[in-house]
Design a protein that fits this description.
mainly alpha; 3 domains; 8% strand
């Protein structure tokens, strides 16, 4: 079941979905580290890294590039480099969280990160508000109001559109729909959007560090693959001959087309005209996942039991139950006889 993965451009490598073909001894220093990796992280997906230089976004139409420039985050958003999926998994597998510090070990090299370390390595502004859980620092902040202020549609129009998409007039059905739930952001994500929108200073080093530390064995995907390359280089980890992928492909770049999908608009970059999608218009389809190239396929699942196997199991279960009932009946008979003096 050796599925080969190869990258194009600078940096080439191969990987296999078989544990036997992956030399864990070069990645870990202890047996317990290897066992944890194999149990929880070997099959985890790497979140596809994205970047944007904002060059293709005209200033007279798109305002968010200016916002990120004011916040000092343009270089971070525009950062793209090779990334190393296996080492990313090793980093998260060996991650330990303690008193605001993240430690890990990659190829025997210890890594220790604090919020200030993150800011220095990524060259982003230090200081700013430290978000504690989901407590908002603004008195007039309303998640509900801000969420719908981001949309061209009113709340009433939004729900009518969703009802039409999902079918029926039952709002409870709309609320509980998996598709509808996937559209919602977490409280912390909404607050960060609000902070960006109002030029509010945020401790981004702490925000990134906290987000990293939240991705343990219970979380599905692993973020910051390309950012971790910068961390690996900072700690002088040898990246030679490691499985490596380049971000030169167009699919790694945030484009106007992708932004159009998220915003529900169609922007003509030739005429600079914007068309908003009306309720009757077809909504933009989400971007297809194309990260299988650097995520190994999951191991084959065991075959499902056949009908005959199920019937055999039920028949055996029935036989066992009848035997136990027979034994219980015999014990009850003996007990009744003893109570009668026989």
């Amino acid at each position: 079941m050796a599925s080969q993965l190869s990258s194009k451009g600078k940096g080439k490598g191969k990987a296999s979905s078989s544990r036997a073909l992956l030399d864990l001894s070069r990645l870990f220093t202890t047996k317990s580290q290897q066992e944890r990796y194999e149990t929880y992280f070997f099959q985890k997906k790497i979140m596809k890294p994205k970047y944007s230089t904002f060059v293709s976004f005209p200033d007279d139409v798109f305002t968010f590039p200016t916002v990120f420039e004011e916040l000092g985050l343009s270089d971070l958003i525009g950062y793209n480099t090779n990334f190393y999926p296996e080492l990313v998994k090793v980093f998260y597998s060996n991650m330990v969280k303690k008193k605001g510090k993240l430690t890990s070990v990659v190829k025997g090299v210890p890594i220790s990160l604090t919020a200030s370390n993150i800011s220095a390595i990524f060259e982003i502004p230090t200081g700013g508000h430290k978000f504690v859980e989901t407590k908002a620092p603004w008195e007039d902040y309303s998640k509900h109001a801000f969420y719908y202020s981001l949309s061209r549609l009113s709340e009433h129009q939004f729900y009518n559109k969703r009802k039409k998409s999902f079918g029926g007039d039952n709002l409870e059905h709309v609320y509980r729909s998996p598709i509808f739930q996937s559209m919602h952001y977490t409280d912390s994500e909404i607050m960060l959007l609000y902070a960006i929108n109002t030029y509010f200073r945020v401790d981004w080093g702490l925000t990134i560090l906290s987000h990293m530390m939240s991705h343990d064995e219970y979380v599905e995907g692993l973020p910051y693959a390309h950012f971790l390359t910068k961390i690996f280089c900072h700690f002088n980890i040898n990246l030679e001959n490691e499985l490596c992928f380049s971000m030169e492909k167009h699919s790694f770049r945030i484009s106007i087309k992708q932004v159009n999908r998220k915003m529900g608009v169609i922007f003509n970059h030739w005429t600079h005209e914007i068309k908003y999608l009306d309720n009757e218009d077809e909504e933009p389809q989400p971007e297809g996942h194309s990260d299988d190239e650097f995520n190994p396929p999951s191991e084959a699942q065991p075959d499902q039991p056949s009908n005959q196997m199920i019937m055999d199991y039920l028949q055996g279960f029935r036989t066992d139950v009848m035997i136990e009932i027979g034994h219980l009946s015999s014990r009850m008979d003996r007990w009744e006889l003893s109570q009668a003096g026989y």
